[in-house]
Specification:
The complex is a heterodimer of chains A (210) and B (180). By secondary structure, chain A is an all-alpha fold. Chain A is 77% helix and 0% strand. Chain B is mainly alpha-helical. The chains are: A mainly alpha (210), B mainly alpha (180).
């Protein structure tokens, strides 16, 4: 009896995972609100981490992610199945993040004090590890995060999408609406800059591990 | 043979195995000769894996609730804006109705004044006839006889007559003569 219940649960999970994003948005376009909830559940964490790495502040990142879902909700009929849903939703999040960065730049320009949200202390993700390893990884993460933050936005955006979120070059080109060659070139240059910035950290990490 | 700049430009292609076998072997030859490029090739994959292992942050517990509230607020806002649009359109249609009403009244009052206007027209036409006389009038200057211009002493002087001519030319004595 328990086995049957377990199997039905797995089957239902399977059927849930088998539903593609495009099928979900199609259902939502037909008025199925539950499909929208599923989209939110699927995308809230990946989007939050993308926006967080891009703008560097978790509270503002969450606000942007909420705004992204709000726009998806409001403009659901604008989505056409010619593009992948993931690239569409990431385009919205990316544009909102860029708008936030521009707003910050303006604030910084007009403000006497330079204590903008972009320069707040890095907020650490809650990793449940031993205190010592947690401290080491935290420092490493902080250095890597700062190195990413120092990149110009156009390089930061592509390196997060490629090496953190693991999108293909084609998908990134579709998200940020630039040619494939430009994406590849930006990713390459971002990697070189990060390598230049982090070479001593990597060397240290290699030394401690050997 | 490739240099460091060329190598750096295509290092990601090299690491992702996007180069042709010939170019790839050129790159490998360069790596064996250049310590800086060798370090780049060794470290970029490590950085890449560090980036993919970066800690993930979680959404706050009330994320869904806040989103729901935002959606409801957005719907209300759009409902209010729709209501405002309706109000504005009602206002415009009322203003248009008032304008049309005034226009109608004006037209109606104009039709009432058709007869007096016709009478006015007649009066105007008679006055226009008298004006025509003026229109057809030609300008004629009074001839001035040089010989009649005399000085007090009774002698004709050439200089006086020329000065008189100049005066007449400047200020002609004009009279209207009806040609009809």
């Amino acid at each position: 009896m328990a086995n049957i219940e377990e199997r039905t649960e797995i089957d239902s999970l399977k059927s849930k995972t088998l539903v593609t994003d495009e099928q979900l948005i199609a259902k939502f376009q037909q008025g199925d609100e539950y499909a929208f909830d599923q989209i939110v559940r699927r995308y809230k964490e990946p989007l939050l981490n993308f926006v967080f790495r891009f703008i560097g502040n978790s509270i503002e990142a969450e606000d942007i992610v909420q705004d992204t879902f709000y726009r998806v909700y409001k403009n659901k009929h604008y989505y056409k199945e010619v593009a992948k849903f993931s690239t569409w939703i990431y385009t919205i999040a990316s544009n909102l993040s860029k708008t936030e960065l521009r707003r910050r730049r303006r604030r910084k320009f007009f403000s006497i004090h330079n204590d903008t949200a972009g320069e707040k202390e890095y907020e650490l993700p809650d990793n449940k590890k031993s205190p010592e390893s947690n401290a080491n990884s935290t420092v490493t993460e902080k250095i890597i995060h700062n190195a990413i933050s120092k990149l110009p936005p156009k390089f930061r955006q592509v390196i997060i999408l490629r090496d953190v979120q693991e999108f293909s070059y084609e998908e990134i080109a579709s998200i940020i609406k630039v040619p494939l060659g430009t994406v590849k070139s930006r990713v390459n240059r971002a990697r070189l800059r990060l390598q230049d910035d982090l070479k001593f950290l990597i060397q240290d990490l290699n030394d401690t591990s050997t | 043979m490739i240099d460091c700049d060329k190598f750096k430009e295509h290092v990601s292609d090299y690491l992702e195995k996007q180069l042709s076998p010939q170019v790839r072997s050129d790159f490998e030859r360069h790596i064996n000769q250049c310590s800086e490029c060798k370090l780049i090739v060794e470290q970029i994959p490590q950085i890449k894996s560090s980036l993919s292992r970066l800690g993930k942050i979680q959404c706050s517990n009330d994320f869904s609730m806040q989103l729901r509230q935002r959606l409801i607020a957005g719907q209300q806002k759009s409902y209010i804006s729709n209501a405002n649009v309706k109000k504005i359109s009602y206002g415009f249609s009322f203003a248009a109705a008032v304008f049309l009403l005034f226009l109608g009244i004006n037209i109606f009052s104009d039709t009432e004044n058709v007869i007096p206007q016709a009478q006015n027209k007649e009066i105007n036409s008679s006055s226009s006839v008298s004006n025509q006389h003026v229109k057809h009038a030609s300008v004629e200057t009074e001839p001035v006889n040089e010989l009649e211009v005399k000085t007090k002493s009774g002698e004709n002087t050439f200089s006086d007559s020329t000065s008189e001519d100049i005066h007449n030319a400047k200020n002609p004595r004009v009279k209207y003569v009806d040609t009809k």
